[in-house]
Design goal:
Length: about 350
């Protein structure tokens, strides 16, 4: 008997992205006919598809709406891939909405009335707390992954332990002797920005070091360019920081470029840390000290919670935080002797 292939295996077989394969399998209208045929032929070779092009064991009357209104880069792509694979193991069809166009307003209000949808998983949803509460009150099962805002009561949510992760970074830098540590935070209206900032500053306060407002920057988008611009500003001060703790790995790499432009060596002149432990953290030389987030496990946990909601189980833990891990690499070192 032919076994069923995973979405990741089909992506490798066809050379397409995981998101494209998922859309093709689920009959998404924005998939070219030749692309869908390529995926279905690969699935047939694995014995996954039946004659209608629906994953065997799947049921279009038992579909989950997966919404990730961002480009599926390494960060979001890992979460979405793990959600798709976990749902597939439960025989649940995925209706994927991804990319910046998925940020359109009013989507949540339409979900309970959409034929065939039994629930939803939403990654970093941009909607307000009121909109999430309204969907909850209509008794439509859903789970939020990496919530942008503090999740409302009785809304299932999965996130990483951002406070603990940021605290571990600052503890590490303080042990190396750093006291002038600059912090480049993410968008100020994101819950995670507040949580990580609190984690960064807690070890400083514990040692009697008052965080200097002049050493904190927030950016509108957590990308490499914004990290570069923020670090340029920070490193241009008369008394520059000896270390920079960035909101994520991409911003840390941007800060690295800014330091290099000023002739500063990492970590001899300035230490730099990131957050996430995505592929780019291993692209620098030396590699980046960062915090590993369990991105794939976040996706799998979201599916576990949603399946329990669909089966009408009572969830004792609605807001789940998964442990992070400090990964120490070569981008951090002792405070320069001149300080």
């Amino acid at each position: 008997m032919a076994r069923r292939a995973t979405i990741r295996e089909l992506a490798a077989e066809t050379g397409l992205s995981v998101a494209t394969v998922s859309r093709a399998l689920n009959g998404h209208v924005n998939v070219a006919s030749h692309t869908r045929a390529l995926v279905l032929e690969a699935a047939d070779r694995f014995g996954q598809q039946d004659s209608r092009g629906v994953p065997s064991g799947g049921n279009l009357a038992n579909a989950v709406y997966l919404r990730c209104p961002y480009v599926l880069t390494d960060y979001f792509g890992l979460i979405v891939s793990s959600v798709c694979e976990a749902l597939e193991r439960h025989g649940i069809v995925v209706v994927l909405s991804a990319g910046e166009r998925a940020q359109r307003h009013g989507v949540l209000d339409t979900l309970p009335a959409r034929a065939g949808l039994t629930g939803a998983i939403m990654v970093l949803p941009p909607e307000s707390e009121e909109e999430l509460v309204r969907l909850r009150d209509r008794r439509f099962p859903f789970v939020v992954v990496d919530p942008r805002l503090s999740p409302p009561r009785d809304v299932a949510a999965v996130s990483a332990a951002h406070f603990a992760g940021a605290r571990s970074v600052m503890d590490h830098l303080l042990e190396l002797g750093h006291r002038r540590v600059a912090i480049i935070g993410g968008p100020q209206d994101w819950l995670v920005s507040d949580t990580r900032l609190a984690g960064f500053t807690a070890p400083l306060a514990r040692r009697g070091v008052l965080p200097e407002p002049s050493l904190v920057r927030f950016v509108p988008e957590p990308n490499e360019e914004q990290g570069y611009l923020a670090a340029q500003d920070l490193l241009a001060t008369a008394e520059r920081p000896t270390a920079i703790a960035a909101f994520n790995d991409k911003m840390a790499v941007g800060a690295w470029h800014a330091a290099a432009e000023r002739g500063l060596r990492v970590p001899d002149d300035v230490s730099i840390t990131g957050f996430d432990d995505i592929d780019i953290s291993r692209a620098t030389q030396p590699m980046l000290t960062t915090v590993r987030q369990p991105l794939a496990e976040m996706g799998r946990m979201a599916v576990t919670l949603l399946v329990q909601l669909l089966e009408r189980h009572h969830l004792e833990a609605l807001h789940v935080e998964l442990a992070t891990e400090l990964i120490v690499r070569g981008s951090t070192g002792p405070v320069p002797s001149s300080y």
